[in-house]
Amino acid sequence: MTGKITLRLLEGFRAVMQAKTVTAAALVLNVSQPVVTRLIRDLEENIGFSLFVREQGRLKPTAEALILYEEVQRSLISVDRILQSVEMLRDGHQGYLQIAAAPALALSFLPKMMAGFSAQYPGARLTLHMHGSETSLNMVLSGMCDIAVVMLSMRQSGTYGERILSGRMVCVLPVGHRLAGEATVGPWDLKGETFLSHPHVLDTRLQIDALFAAHGIQREMRLESQISYSLIELVAAGAGVALVDPLTATLYRGDGVVFVPFDPIVVNHYSVVTSSERPPSVLQERFIEQLKTSLYDTLAPEYRVVGG
After folding, report:
1. Measured CA distances, 230 to 88, 168, 234 (Å)
2. Is the pTM of this model over 0.70?
3. pLDDT tens digits for range 23-72
């Protein structure tokens, strides 16, 4: 009957088999030679037969040792993989993240940011889902996603997530428009313009409508889209003017439009939300850290709102 065979004994045996000598095995294991000798002796006692014979001062493995080594090697390779996975998880280099994001972030900002993150952490698996901010928020709260990157109102951001950055909405005008050269554009400047808008489900639509109503400004409204990028393309196609979030405006690379800050300021809050039911993984923390840095570096300085 065999005695207790520990992982340490098998590691000592493998080291001697691979290094050929006790001296070399001790260097591999970063221990003294007597420790290696004791490991081999204890293993032999526990299994009930000899593993090595001495010939001219060197250890020569027995036939049984050669057979055992094949099994030990296969087993310890699996252990090595487990230990490597543990190390990668501890350092945030491995894991699976489900990310839900509002269209303004999923279409313009996150693809490049996630590509850079994936290159830095090749052991990580990332999935991006695009939904409205409310749906993305609910996906995290219900446990369907790990992280939501969204545009929340001040009330929602304080309740559910961490605000990363705030920016002012931007007016989109076709090239050659009479207001294209202005430093800012206000509600009074857009009187009578064909106005392309976000739908009523978005908080910013309610803010903008209230603002124009407060100034008594009538707008001609025909087209709506939840996606700022689509509104910009509609402006480029000559369909009217629009107000869009500053991040989409910053990243837009098409022709045919100009962007002018809107005044009075209508603020968009960019927030990150994680579950309050479980602590974030190391990988989540690394992702959020890079998200914050990338978002701040990406948003045009003239559109940032300090303390917004």
Report:
1. 40, 19, 6
2. no
3. 888 988 888 989 988 998 998 888 888 888 887 767 888 888 888 888 88
Joined tokens for residue 292: 């914050």
Distances (CA, A) of 237 to 142, 162, 257: 40, 37, 9
CA 203 to chain centre: 26
Tell me which long-range contacts 300-307 makes (C-beta under 8 A, separation of at least 24): 300/246, 300/249, 300/250, 302/261, 303/167, 303/168, 303/170, 303/246, 303/249, 303/250, 303/261, 304/165, 304/166, 304/167, 304/168, 304/246, 305/166, 305/167, 305/168, 305/265, 305/267, 306/166, 307/166
Single-letter residue type at 143: G
Separation CA 31–CA 33 (nearest Å): 7
CA distance 158 to 289: 19
Strand partners, 129: 100
283-307: pLDDT as tens digits = 888 999 999 999 999 999 999 998 6
The structure tokens 């945030």 sit at 92
How far lies 26's CA from each of 18, 61, 289, 291, in Å?
12, 17, 42, 45
Cα–Cα distance for residue pair 148/107, rounded to 1 Å: 14
Distance CA 88, CA 116 (A): 18
In angstroms, the first-to-last Cα distance of the chain is 73
Given CA atoms 90, 280, 268, 126 in this order, what sign does their dihedral have?
A: positive
